[in-house]
Design a protein that fits this description.
The complex is a heterodimer of chains A (341) and B (693). Chain A is mainly β. Helices cover 4% and strands 50% of the residues of chain A. A four-stranded antiparallel beta sheet of chain A has the order 1-30-29-28, with no helix packed on it. Chain A has a four-stranded antiparallel beta sheet with strand order 2-3-4-5, with no helix packed on it. The radius of gyration of chain A is 19 Å and the shape is globular. Chain B has a two-stranded antiparallel ribbon. In chain B, strand 1 and strand 2 form a beta hairpin. Chain B starts with a helix and ends in a 7-residue tail after the last helix. Classes of the chains: A mainly beta (341), B mainly alpha (693).
Chain lengths: 341, 693
């Protein structure tokens, strides 16, 4: 592996959330960073200026958030609400509700819709342009086999990972039923799912230190390419200690990806060449979320205890923004000069 | 010709001369006297003169007449010209033709002018006629003849005509405008009428009979327009009034819908009402939207909903109260609010209190209780665990007191397993109590209030429990001493009278006797089941939360020990749990002692000691534990150092462990246990529990 002497963990953002960080995301247009947290807040940071630009309080812990454009975003809260946040006016309104805490939220630029997944075992699509009020904004409700744990979008494809290791693949243009119904190829609970930027498949991580690389195309040739690998493990006294893989983030330029686990490490992988490109030095506690900036020059790392061992004393929650060297994320074209997947 | 006339004159003169000559001659012949002749001649001369004079007079008169005529004509001509605003012709030049010729010319000119004038006049008349008509229309029929446009003959100039034409044009425009105005008014009137559900024709007809005729010409008099405008205004006012009423009703509707979650289909019927809630006056155009009937309909709906609301409100209050009670009982809290609520619910039923206000109050109460429950949660979980352990402990006591517990009846192995598990659990009680006490103290310090469990102070319960434990401890010590003395006695006897059959063998044999027969405290299974129904329930309720929050370190044991089924089978033998009322705790020192004691007995060859222990055991009644409701029970004994199955390893981690980490173990265990639902870290943290369907 290309182990380089450990650099600093990156710049730590001032005014971090006061409780566990559930997700963070860079904007598609700027270096703004949206962070949701168990302290019932969503915060907007300017990562390059290291400044807190806004804060939105919710009725319950916020489990996910995403940008709409640079002026507004959305959040998914454990108080069952889906909210729209307007940064300029620092105002928020309720777009709609689920029957249980809302676990994840994604905005599709292709469909102009907001997609939310909840523990009430449904997926809901919203049209945020509609006037306020659930009946105006709700586009559809789509039952899922189990509680929704993770969502990912690429183009018109939507991948939904739920409890019970179900994976549903949808086409946003026809949400009446899944395009594909799959079972996770990993044996344990799904933590995170993320689509490849080139739209050919998705990576899925589990609580048992493993990541599966999957492909949408059901032809034999494509399916032959799929594989899974172990990561975020530690060998101690002959026993493997396995950590959940909480986060996956794809590099927007090179298609390589970073994973973050409860062991506090962030690894960067080249999925095509099946190589680990880089391992960053250990963070104080579990990696709860990861996000590359739009140009892939910055990587935001949420180092925040994810409650995997229940209530216990833990390191303070922190957000690190590190600049990414090309060498850390650029695939090494060696044996196979394939275009990056 | 002129020459001819002169010739004629000359001829006449010659004829006269000839006639005179002839007369002279005649007279000569006659011999007329000279005098006669002269008179005769004078007479002729006079007659001639007179004739001439007369002719001249006539001619003069004729000339004067002509001149007068010409002057008159010229004056008229000038008049006409000036009236028509035209340059008068000048007659400075005298035509050679004499006066009569001049007259002819003037007359012909006059004639022309007159024709022109008549034409002009006709034009005026025509225009004036129209002006008159329009003005009359404006003024209305009643004042028809009061205004008459008079033709001013003196001014028929083009300029005036133009002016009049302009005036006419203006009037025509005005008329057009008025027509437009009227039709506008009528349109508005029509739409307002349709919105208000009124008969348009009727209202229009009242204003003017021509107005309700859609085809015919409309009356456009000032009066009509005024009346129309007034009608429109008044109807509009009515509309605004009704609109406000409708909007008030609509907001009431919306409020009620929100409050009662009225189904969509029911709302649909009045969607058009609520959609107009913020509409301004001109925006409401739907037919009959504001008719009296429709308003009454909406009003009826509102009052219906209101009635529904008041009835539902009571229901809601009852439901909320139930929820509050449930939360309280779930978290073992006693809220004084509950009793207060009771009285106010009574009051509500009798109508003394507004249910709305009460509902708010209850909701506030629920929120408070929930919040409190959240901060109590951690300790409560521990309490549940402790109580479960206590229950197990009491069962174990009971079990240990059963002399025939090793009789190999059906299911005995399960009891055995349970006992084994129970012992492990009991060993942990002191530590649990310790932790619980410190946590509770910390909590009390933090919240500055006592931690109450079902109304009793938890610390007090714990204290009581430890006291009891201490007592038991002492009891056990006494038993042990007694046993030792007894043992010495037996040894002495043996020395004196010879040996007895080996006690260990007898123990084994005894186990073969049927379970049902032996045992003074064997109870029929069914009866006991009934007896213990309640505690069992309580225990099972704890189960889920326990398995979620279970420390991985503990769960290993759970793993290796008996199944849930064994639990249930054995439940009849459980002593009523200490849980709900009072419990006692050992202090730390006592725990150590106790553990040590147990260890000691373990190391001894227990099987052999069995018979003797049994002897002493049955003989020594211990103090009754825990007052109150235990009275019907036979006295309890302490768990004596009874034989256990060889203390199998309870070493955590290594054995029962999969190589997975503790973190992982959490989820996986949840998976494999009797609990089929898995939970993610987030769900565990949020306390999310999948509702049972």
């Amino acid at each position: 592996m290309t182990a380089v002497p450990p650099p600093a963990p990156g710049r730590e953002l001032a005014n971090p959330p006061s409780d566990g960080i559930s997700n963070l995301r860079f904007s598609n247009h700027s270096d703004h960073l949206l962070v949701s947290s168990w302290d019932k807040s969503v915060r907007l940071y300017d990562a390059s200026a290291n400044a807190l630009r806004g804060e939105f309080m919710h009725g319950g812990p916020v489990l996910d958030c995403c940008f709409h454009d640079d002026s507004s975003g959305f959040s998914a809260s454990a108080d069952n609400t889906v909210r729209r946040l307007v940064f300029s006016s620092n105002k928020e309104d309720i777009l709609g509700r689920h029957d249980a805490p809302v676990r994840c939220v994604e905005y599709s630029y292709a469909a102009g819709q907001l997609i939310t997944g909840s523990w009430d075992k449904t997926l809901k699509c919203w049209d945020p342009r509609g006037a306020s009020g659930q009946d105006r904004t709700l586009v559809g409700t789509y039952p899922q086999p189990e509680r929704v744990y993770s969502l990912s979008l690429v183009g018109n494809r939507l991948v939904v990972a739920t409890a019970g290791r179900h994976v549903n693949v949808y086409d946003l243009r026809n949400m009446s039923q899944p395009e594909q119904r799959r079972e996770s190829s990993l044996k344990y609970q799904t933590r995170c799912v993320r689509c490849y930027p080139n739209g050919t498949g998705y990576a899925l991580s589990s609580v048992e230190g493993r990541v599966a690389m999957e492909f949408f195309d059901l032809s034999e040739a494509s399916q032959a390419k799929k594989y899974a690998f172990k990561c975020h493990r530690k060998s101690e006294a002959g026993r493997d200690i396995v950590y959940p893989v909480n986060a996956i983030a794809f590099h927007p330029v090179y298609g390589t990806f970073a994973t973050g686990g409860c062991d506090g490490y962030v690894n960067v992988w080249d999925g095509n060449n099946k190589k680990r490109l880089y391992q960053y030095s250990k963070y104080p506690t579990s990696i709860a979320a990861l996000s590359f900036s739009r140009d892939g020059r910055l990587l935001a790392v949420a180092s925040s205890y994810t409650f995997e061992e229940g209530e216990k004393p833990h390191e303070p929650d922190a957000i690190y923004v590190r600049s990414v060297n090309e060498i850390e994320v650029k695939p090494k074209p060696k044996v196979y000069p394939n275009p990056p997947a | 010709m002129f020459k001819h006339q002169i010739n004629q004159f000359a001829h006449i003169e010659t004829t006269c001369g000839l006639l005179l000559d002839e007369l002279q001659k005649i007279w000569d012949e006659v011999g007329e006297p000279e005098v006669n002749r002269n008179t005769m001649l004078l007479e002729i001369e006079q007659k001639c003169l007179e004739l001439y004079r007369r002719k001249v007079d006539v001619a003069k008169k004729c000339r004067a007449q002509l001149q007068q005529e010409i002057a008159e004509s010229e004056a008229e001509l000038a008049d006409i010209c000036s009236a028509m605003g035209e340059q008068p012709l000048h007659f400075d030049w005298k035509p050679d033709g004499g006066l009569s010729k001049e007259l002819d010319i003037v007359i012909s000119q006059l004639e022309d002018m007159r024709k022109l004038k008549i034409n002009r006049k006709n034009q005026f008349v025509e225009v004036l006629q129209q002006i008159q008509n329009i003005s009359n229309e404006f003024r209305g029929d009643t004042e028809d003849n009061l205004y008459k446009v008079v033709l001013d003959e003196t001014d028929l100039s083009m300029r005036r005509l133009e002016e009049l034409r302009k005036q006419l044009l203006e009037l025509q425009n005005q008329k057009r405008n008025r027509l437009k105005q009227v039709s506008n008014h009528l349109n508005t009137l029509n739409s307002v009428c349709s919105v208000l559900g009124m008969e348009f024709r009727h209202i229009a007809g009242e204003i003017h009979s021509t107005l309700n005729d859609s085809k015919g010409t409309k009356d456009i008099s000032n009066h009509t327009i005024e009346k129309l405008a007034a009608a429109v205004q008044s109807l509009r006012e009515v509309k605004i009034q009704r609109m406000q009423r409708l909007q008030n009703l609509a907001s009431a509707l919306l409020e009620m819908w929100n409050l009662m979650d009225t189904p969509m289909e029911e709302q649909q019927m009045f969607q058009n009402v609520t959609s107009n809630i913020a509409a301004s006056e001109p925006e409401i155009t739907e037919t009959n939207m504001l008719s009296v009937n429709f308003l009454n309909n909406v009003e009826a709906e509102v009052s219906r909903l209101e009635q529904l609301k008041s009835s539902k409100m009571k229901e809601l209050v009852m439901k909320k109260r139930l929820e509050l009670e449930q939360i309280c009982s779930q978290t073992h809290m006693v809220t004084e609010a509950l009793s207060v609520m009771e009285s106010s619910v009574e009051a509500m039923k009798s109508g003394a209190v507004d249910p709305m206000y009460l509902l708010e109050e209850i909701e506030l109460q629920i929120a408070n209780v929930k919040e409190e429950a959240l901060c109590r949660k951690e300790i409560l979980e521990k309490v549940e665990k402790w109580l479960a352990a206590c229950q197990e402990e009491s069962w174990l006591e009971e079990y240990n007191r059963d002399d025939n517990r090793y009789n190999g009846g059906r299911g005995a192995h399960l009891t055995l397993k349970r006992a084994e598990k129970g012992r492990a659990l009991v060993n942990k009680i002191p530590a649990m109590v310790e932790v619980l006490t410190s946590k509770t103290k910390a909590w009390e310090e933090q919240s500055q209030t006592e931690f109450l469990y079902d109304g009793g102070r938890l610390l007090f319960m714990l204290e009581q429990y430890s006291m009891l434990r201490q007592e038991k401890e002492q009891e056990m010590q006494r038993q042990r001493d007694q046993k030792r003395i007894q043992g010495q006695l037996i040894a002495k006897q043996e020395a004196l009278f010879g040996s007895k059959p080996s006690p260990s063998k007898s123990g084994k044999k005894a186990s073969r006797t049927p379970t049902g027969v032996a045992g003074n405290r064997k109870v029929s299974l069914g009866g006991a089941m009934l007896q213990n129904l309640k505690p069992e329930k309580a225990a099972s309720r704890l189960q889920p939360s326990k398995s979620i929050s279970e420390d991985p370190g503990h769960s290993a044991e759970k793993y290796s020990s008996g199944s849930g089924k064994a639990h249930k089978n054995k439940s009849p033998l459980i002593r009523k749990p200490l849980s709900p009322v009072s419990s006692q705790v050992l202090s730390k020192a006592n725990i150590d002692n106790f553990l040590e004691d147990q260890k000691m007995t373990y190391t001894a060859s227990l099987q052999k000691a069995l018979s003797s222990t049994e002897l002493s055991l049955v003989g020594t009644p211990s103090k009754p534990i825990a007052v109150g409701y235990e009275e019907s029970r036979t006295p309890k004994t302490m768990p004596i150092p009874e034989p256990t199955t060889p203390p199998t390893v309870s070493v955590p981690m290594t054995t029962a462990r999969t190589p997975a980490t503790p973190r992982l173990a959490l989820c996986i265990e949840n998976n494999n246990n009797n609990q089929p639902t898995e939970y993610s870290f987030e769900e565990v943290r949020a306390g999310f529990i999948l509702p049972k369907t």
